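Entry for zinc ion complex. Fields follow.
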Amino acid sequence: MTDPIRLADYTPPPYVIDHVSLDFQLDFEQTEVDSRLRLRRHPDALPGRELLLHGEDLSLLAIAIDGQPLAPAQYAVSAEGLRLIDPPAEFELHTRVRIHPARNTRLEGLYQSSAFLLTQCEAEGFRRITYFLDRPDVMARFTVRLEADQQQFPVLLSNGDDVAQGTLANGRHFVQWQDPWPKPSYLFAIAAGALGHIEDYFRTRSGRDVRLRIYAEPRALPRSWFALDALKRSMRWDEARYGLEYDLDQFNIVATYDFNMGAMENKSLNIFNAKAIVADLERATDADLTYVEAVVAHEYFHNWTGNRVTCRDWFQLSLKEGLTVYRDQEFSADQGSRAVKRIDDVRLLRANQFPEDSGPFAHPVRPSEYVEINNFYTATVYEKGAEIVRLYERVLGREGFRRGMDLYFQRHDGQAVTTDDFRAAMADANGVDLSRFSRWYEQAGTPILTVTEQFDSERGVLTVQFSQETPGTLGQADKLPVPIPIPIALYRQDGLRLPLQQRDVGPPLAGAMLVLTEASQTLQFDGLQEKPVLSVLHDFSAPVALRHRQSVAELSVRLGFEQDPFCRFEAAQNLGEHLIQSVYAGQALDAVSGLAEIGRAFKALCADAGLDPAVLAECLNLPDEAYLSERMQAIDPSRLFHARQAVATWLGQQLEGALLQHYHREAQSAGGGFDAPSTAARRIRHRALALLIAGDATRHGALASELAVTARNMTERLAALSLLVHFGLADQEAALAQFYQQYEDDPLLLDKWLSVQASSPQPDALSRVRALLKHPAYTHRNPNKVRALIGTFGRLNRLHFHAADGSGYALYADALQAVDALNPQVAARLSAAFNGWRRFEPLRQEAMRRTLQRLLQAGLSKDSAEIVTKALE
Ligand code: 0A1
Ligand code: ZN
């Protein structure tokens, strides 16, 4: 495998690029890029006779320095780029290259997406457009001239402001763009072609009007107003919460159906996967709308956290991503229900990041080496990174955190910096020592927090021991303790919250919160008449795996009375896990300890009028298989699926009356808009319906058929469709056919149609997926389609992906290999599905290992090879 790049080897760039002037002759087949770079030796550069400018798959047509064409001895072109031999200390480099957008199936650099051309430059795509020092610590001012056929490319967009335009001979035209803000090359962007737009304005708090536009193919535009409104709300929020104002006169978003990721924060020209823009109630689910709102905010927030202050090198990726995810999470929490948002985020973290952190691809939030940087846009860098930023907020308070942010911008605006710089700003602004937080960035693995209790009933004293351990990961055997903020509460058996009377043991608590800094610390509380119910880690205060054994009785008290909604959800998850694991271990459900008590606790919960129905829905949503697997060894996935299903059946039967009541009671609200009460109504109804059908499909299946017909929005329609398909109910074929017919022209809804079938636990799932691979709605060339069909099958269909005969693995691996030949980045993400192989029972382990070996022998891209090789290590 290629040698890794190491953080320890970082050196400043050899040259500074003050200005870039690009001239594009755009065309789908052949585009020519003329570039003039003003370079000057970096003051701290190490001495050297050569300068390497990155470049990949470029045909060099012309080259000159300060107007003088270069002789062959003065430069060399290789697979890596362009080497200049003995360049002057300061000079202008002129190059002209040719590239082929229509042949670009990797969707990196300049590529074609239906009737337009687009770029994707993060992380290292700019080098596929022209020769450059393609690294984030080289920040330059860009001037860009785009020229093309006016009919074919009526719209010509790049970063900054358009400063000139005109028509030319032969039906051609041009637009010139100037970006006044220095930026790294990964934020460069172009969009050109037959794009329509919608438009609105935003007045900044200092009174400037910013023109906002969303560009897309015309049929997508009527469904893009929600996104445009989300943009305005994001701009307002960033001013209110952080005092951050937008810094140009226009802000443009372009939506495309061909995109490797969710979206990209190019300076003033964000490019989005249509799935993160095109959404309204009629054609998108609540989850989609929530996603759109979050991604629009995320990319907008990058303007400050990422663009104005950027990363020194790609090891610092979480500097911008962790911080920006934290910011979009906070924005979303302020738009709807904070509690529901937190529960959703924790579920995501546990389903995606925890397994990553305990598998072969475990890496620190600030990795120390990589082979392919594209493989590091991970749940660890993004979601765990955001949790670390949240830790600063927990220990500094919201105001202290704001002081840290202010200092960060004051110090680093216009610079390319590190996660250490961010931490220093947080510490210095508050006069505190945060040095130990560096361990959160440097150590891979999820810390395990163990809480043990001892109650002395004679003295009325509760002793609580907190200990932490981060398991060893590949190449990082020994770990140090990390600071873990742990809010603590005590409840009486009847649910009354007790005051904390701390004894003089261990560190004194500030605001009922312990910050655990050592491997182990002990606290004592007194004045207790009976053993209280202990509750820790409110709001999921740190990204740790909690081991806290509590009895069914204690968990029931927490489920019923916790003031913190996350903790209620957590108690429900623990009770669910207890039942599922008992059945998995071979017990009959009726024989499981505390079953009746658990039933009563859930009934009481359903009757709690004060509880947000959306939180109730999450409490009734059993822990998913990915999370459960994380805490098991020698997993039999089929047994686990059936154990979970058995508990769902039991819960559906136990709660039948209450569930029917919720289902019918919320029917009217569920027809409402995208407001918190209506979305909560839909959440509880669909959760109730799923449990009812699990409980008794013959009795309640008809409700799903009815919902398919009466659906008033896509959330209802899709909930009905997936229940019909996943439970194999009578109307499933008709419903699938009807859905297809109705939405045949809508790529995003066809993705859903594929996903619903790919995730079905019914026995015919594999043959369905096989057939769908040949369906006209599917192509390996489109990342959304690949994710919808193959990605969903590998991630969510644990029953059939892990089929005992290996058929699921084989189908998946074949598809992966075909995708890898077209788009390595997307294929590498698919490869991660095998990462957990060591956790499975021996037969599946062996089948997965063999599949991985077969893939590697077949020859993979650098991207996929890195993942597969690590998995086999
Ligand atoms: N910076 C973007 C994510 C992104 C990363 C890489 C891409 O192509 C390789 C595209 C987008 C974000 O955080 O939204
Ligand atoms: Zn981002």
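NOTE: The pocket of O-methyl-L-tyrosine (ligand 1) is lined by residues 120, 122, 260-265, 298-299, 321, 374, 377, 825 (CB under 6 Å).
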